[in-house]
């Protein structure tokens, strides 16, 4: 019975998170309430409070979910020994960006975090958490460039932090422009050429 109760609680928690993403996607984070989320999830407001302190807690949990997924992918990419470090990183970027078009859940997530979120009020404190997570992933990304230097694929003395930062800005720009206007960037056709252009001009 206890196991069933735990499973039910986990299912309810997931249902709330999925509903929150849908509500944020439609109404924006600032205009969404816990009542909206509870109604969309088909649960009581009390059930929402049982699992989460407030809307900021839900928002942070959604970000944590996508961050951990990306971190796992980033780390696992390094095990693809048949590819060079730059090839590993290029493929990761291509697949990650293309996922936004093919995976509705991820597209909703990035739409919320890029276009429908105002980091004010209860959400203001989350920026420092997200910045720390970004620094963590940036450090791992930088390791790809360091290994590329060791293998002679990049010139010695290359600024690996600058390379990693510029890559994040480049990928972020592609995603942002696609979400703002999908007609401007056809991810299915343009993602690979755009990413390959970046890495080609690096060497």
Percent range for helical residues? over 70%
> What is the H level of CATH, i.e. the homologous superfamily of the largest domain?
Tetracycline Repressor, domain 2
Q: What class would the helix/strand composition place it in?
A: mainly alpha
Average residue-wise pLDDT: 92
Uncertain runs with pLDDT below 50, 5 residues or more? none
- Rg value: 19 Å
Q: What is the CA-CA span between the terminal residues?
A: 60 Å
Tally the helices: what do you get?
Answer: 9
**Shape designation:** elongated
Name given to the CATH architecture of the largest domain: Orthogonal Bundle
Number of domains: 2
Main β sheet profile: none
| DSSP, total strands | 0
Can you write the helix and strand succession as a string?
Answer: HHHHHHHHH
Output the CATH class name of the largest domain.
Mainly Alpha
- In terms of DSSP E residues, the strand content is under 5%
CATH level-3 fold name of the largest domain: Tetracycline Repressor, domain 2
Describe it for me?
By secondary structure, the chain is mainly α. The chain has two domains: 1-52, Homeodomain-like (Arc Repressor Mutant, subunit A, Orthogonal Bundle), CATH 1.10.10.60; 55-202, Orthogonal Bundle (Tetracycline Repressor, domain 2). It is 77% helix and 0% strand. The protein is built from nine helices and no strands. It has helices at 2-27, 34-41, 45-51, 55-77, 85-102, 104-115, 126-150, 160-180, 187-202. Helix 6 crosses helix 8 (160-180). It is elongated, with a radius of gyration of 19 Å. The model has no long low-confidence stretch (mean pLDDT 92).
